[in-house]
Design a protein that fits this description.
The chain is an alpha/beta fold. Helix content is about 30%, strand content about 25%. Strands 8-9-10-7-11-12-13 form a 7-stranded mixed sheet, with helices on one face. It has a 6-stranded parallel sheet with strand order 3-2-1-4-5-6, with helices on both faces. A hairpin with a 2-residue loop joins strand 12 and strand 13. It is globular and about 60 Å long. The structure holds NADP nicotinamide-adenine-dinucleotide phosphate.
Length: about 325
């Protein structure tokens, strides 16, 4: 698969390295509105927009701010190119609808880089939950207490703003953890949240908590933050009528479910920068997303994080923002 990378910022470095590692995947060049070459691949060509790309390519990777993903996806779909977008799908329902419809109409694949779904432990938990093997879940408590300094927010004038980031840690950093929450448990029926801005000069929240009740009675909680210094591993604690388990980052760190041995891959661990940094230096999960995306294109199936399920994550985050008290 031949890719054009749209955006030349922080996460572009992860894609250059991930594509470099994969045989059969090729990075053709980048689109930069400023005419900036890719920092990690300065010799590759650079175009001002997708329509100007004058080399053959099959797909785009959208590495632009959250609120621009729909724009890039629609442009790519109109050119008949497949779309792998960085998370989230987008930050507004109408934008997600438009990009999904454009890709559907053009017959191209739309995948989202929610790379934590590729972790073996997250996948096995998802399969066991879907299969009802973990019993009746009555509580799920997510803690995504990260830290970013003001310099991070100052590194882009859109960072921490509602227009393009679409929010603070709920929409941006903890988006991955809320994605797993929505992937595992679906959307709640009732939400109440409290949000505040404590440690940064930004428009959006930098800390908050939400309480959620699901249709089956399950009560969920989430704390998301970029104000909790020094930044902590993400934890998801789940309680069912058969016992409890905990995921720390993307690995099962505690397991006590009646009659079921710990299904976790004890030997597996992604290196996580996310608690304290926007960089993603362990490219293995991005590689896994690219591998799944290419298989989805070949097989004509939905990617692991397709538009329909990735959309739930943004919906959940918007619900949390809307139900703020
Ligand atoms: N999956 C993950 O773990 C992960 C981690 C970090 C970030 N992300 C996601 O990746 C995307 C990009 O994040 P990033 O940290 O790489 O951001 P970034 O460093 O600000 O880079 C974004 C790039 O988008 C381009 N761009 C086009 N229009 C822009 C505009 N109006 N304002 C600012 N930039 C614009 C810019 O490149 P040009 O000026 O050259 O066009 C810029 O370098 C976001 O959606 C973010 O959520 C995902």
């Amino acid at each position: 698969m031949r890719y054009v990378l749209v955006g030349t910022g922080n996460i572009s470095n992860t894609y250059v390295a991930a594509l470099d590692e994969r045989s059969g995947s090729e990075l053709v060049g980048c689109v930069s509105r400023r005419g900036r070459a890719l920092p990690a691949a300065p010799d590759l060509p650079c175009w001002p927009d997708l329509a100007s790309v004058d080399r053959p390519f099959d797909a785009v990777i959208l590495a632009t701010p959250n609120g621009l993903h729909h724009q890039g996806a629609i442009e790519a779909a109109e050119l008949g190119k497949h779309v792998l977008t960085e998370k989230p799908l987008d930050i507004a329902v109408v934008a997600m609808d438009k990009m999904t419809e454009a890709c559907r109409a053009a017959g191209v694949t739309l995948g989202v880089c929610f790379q934590r779904r590729t972790s073996p432990d997250n996948r096995v938990v998802k399969a066991l939950l879907d299969d009802g093997q973990l019993g009746r879940v009555f509580a799920a408590d997510l803690s995504a207490k990260f830290y970013r300094d003001q310099g991070y927010y100052d590194s882009g004038d859109y960072r921490g703003g509602m227009a393009l980031d679409g929010g603070g840690p709920f929409m941006q950093q903890a988006c991955h953890n809320l994605d797993l929450y929505a992937w595992f448990f679906g959307l709640p029926e009732q939400v109440v949240s409290m949000l505040g801005t404590f440690a940064h000069q930004i428009e959006a929240e930098d800390h908050g908590a939400a309480l959620m009740r699901h249709g089956n009675g399950m009560i969920g909680t989430v704390v998301a933050s970029t104000a909790t210094r020094p930044g902590f591993s993400a934890r998801l604690e789940v309680h069912t009528d058969r016992g409890s388990f905990t995921l720390t980052d993307d690995s099962i760190s505690f397991w006590d479910i009646e009659g079921l041995a710990n299904p976790g891959r004890q030997d597996f661990q992604y290196a996580h920068d996310g608690a304290t940094s926007a960089s993603v230096t362990d490219t293995s999960a991005h590689q896994a997303i690219i591998e799944d995306f290419e298989a989805a294109v070949r097989e004509g199936r939905e990617p692991l994080a397709g538009a329909a399920s990735a959309r739930l994550t943004t919906e959940l985050i918007l619900q949390i923002y809307r139900e703020r008290v």
